[in-house]
Amino acid sequence: MPDGPKSLEGKKYPAKSHAHNVLSHLKKKNSAKAQEVSFFISGEDLELYKYCDQTRPFRQNRYFFYLTGNNIPGSHVLYESVKDKLTIYLPNVDKEDIMWSGLPLSKDEAAKKFDADEIKYAADIINDLKGLLSKACTTDINKFNLEFKDYLVEKDDDFFYALDEARAFKDDYEIELMRHAAKITDNCHLAVMSALPIETKETHIHAEFMYHALRQGSKNQSYDPICCSGESCSTLHWVKNDGDITPDKRSVLIDAGAEWDCYASDVTRCFPVNGEWAKEHLEIYNLVLKMQEEVYKLMKPGVEWEDLHLKAHRVLIEEFQQLGIFKNEYSVDEVFKSKASARFFPHGLGHMLGMDTHDTAGYANYSDPDPLLCYLRIRRKLEPNMVVTNEPGCYFSPFLLEETLNDPLKSKYINKDVLDRYWYVGGVRIEDDVLITKDGYEIFTKVTKDPKEISEIVKAAYERGVKSYHNVV
Ligand code: GLY
Ligand code: MN
Ligand code: MN
To answer: Which ligand 1 atom lies nearest to the CA of residue 223?
Structure first.
């Protein structure tokens, strides 16, 4: 198995400090409740498919992982604030299963690996819960903890708030995990760009990305890779990945991110099929790049995410006027107020990133009546130690734009003849993962987005005549 980050060697995932973070957010929210609170969370367990010697894909409960750093199926955690004690419960040892699955981690090994005050087995849980002064908060009562329900309180708003806020601010350990996930993802994107001659189907791009992620030790993707070409690039989450990549389609978009130790990366790159940018494709690419760059100029603690998102819309409007897609006899302000840009950049500028791709504590308001804001996944000010994505995009979706083109109050700004030249592009999105620092930001993901360099990488692959065993099928 390839190594994780060197800087974390010999260190433990800071579970105890995460419990303290949760407690401190709970205190801020409701100090009375925080005095004697206990948290109990059950991790996910393996589940067999019926009639098949196979389990469902395992994905650890993120709240559980945050309080343990433990990815072992069937585990539980209890944190008692009165004793400041964190106990991890390993699954009871099933001797029959050792023949199939090998030896489980012993209590001693677990004590060395995890940042816990005590390691016990699940059989001890019931007595420990009975001994608490009051019921323990849990995220939800489910099939993995139903037997303990009399000792648990589920879905407490303050508890969720505290967990979500704690997860929103990454500590040094988490930042290293995310840098590592980003590095793996960079390599995968570069590999995809460098192998276009053998990627004649969207599935090939998907396969190339996964192959390189797995080779680097990343067994899970943060989300299903989105691999599209031509007009499919206008579907934001195109995960069918079943189209051909033929030269006439011209544009390719891949949005994919590897995971490391439950921490996500989320990156999008676009490039021309054969390395030669088509005129309109490059124009839209440069426009989106400018949206991203202008956002970076304003990105720092204290800035409202909403203002960054709206800045990106203004850049799109200005550039559309330069290209003639929007008529330039109107002011940018007037077009902005008309919301005519909404369906060309229909998603939000980005989202919180952490263990989940769309991580906690963004506080989206999907019922916001403003079409420029309703899909925005962050509705708060930026603060140091948040990790977010900066992912502007520009799309030409006949379905999405139908309403805009049929609304005279919006379509009056659009030059339909010019717009018609751009449908083939489908869409362009450029996406990077960014840590907010004390006075600015640090971009985790570094794979090139320079259009000239991208073109050279793709063309060089053609010149080398990239071949591999892949192209025998
Ligand atoms: N990959 C999903 C997203 O960018 O939000
Ligand atoms: Mn994203
Ligand atoms: Mn993405």
So the answer is: 1
Structure tokens, 302: 């204290």
CB 236 within 8 A of CB 243: no
Torsion of CA 155, 157, 162, 163, to 10 degrees: 30
Beta bridge partners of 90: 121
Look at residue 3 in the predicted model and tell me its pLDDT: 87
Enter the tokens of residue 159.
């508890």
Phi first, then psi: what are they for 405, rounded to 5°?
Answer: -70, -25
Contact 126, 118 (CB under 8 A): no
Task: Supply the pLDDT for residue 17.
Answer: 98
pLDDT value at position 303? 98
Would you call 73 exposed, middle or buried from its count of C-beta atoms within 10 A (0-12, 13-18, 19+)?
middle
Residue nearest to atom 3 of ligand 1 (CA): 266
pTM beyond 0.70: the answer is yes
Which residues place a Cβ less than 5 A from the ion ligand 2?
A: 266, 389
List, for the chain, all residue ranges whose pLDDT scores fall below the cut of 50.
471-473
Q: How far is CA 59 from the centre of its chain?
A: 15
pLDDT of residue 468: 59
The answer to whether the Cα torsion of 214, 220, 222, 224 is positive or negative is positive
Rounded to the nearest whole angstrom, what is the distance from the C-alpha of residue 347 to the centroid of ligand 1? 10
Query: What pLDDT, on the 0 to 100 scale, is given for residue 384?
Result: 98
Mean pLDDT for all residues in the chain: 96
Both tokens of residue 312?
Answer: 């990106």
Q: 89: exposed, middle or buried (C-beta count within 10 Å: 0-12, 13-18, 19+)? A: buried
Give the angle subtended at the CA of 90 by the CAs of 85 and 93, to the nearest 5°: 145
Cα 45 to ligand 2 centroid, rounded to whole Å = 28
Q: How many other CB atoms are there within 10 angstroms of residue 146's CB atom?
A: 10
CA distance 22 to 16: 10
Question: In angstroms, what is the span from residue 259 Cα to ligand 1's centroid?
Answer: 13
First vs last C-alpha separation in the chain: 28
- CA angle, corner 270, sides to 246 and 284, nearest 5? 100
User: Which ligand number lies closest to the CA of residue 388?
Assistant: 2
Is the distance from CB of 137 to CB of 86 less than 8 angstroms?
no
Identify the pLDDT of residue 470: 52
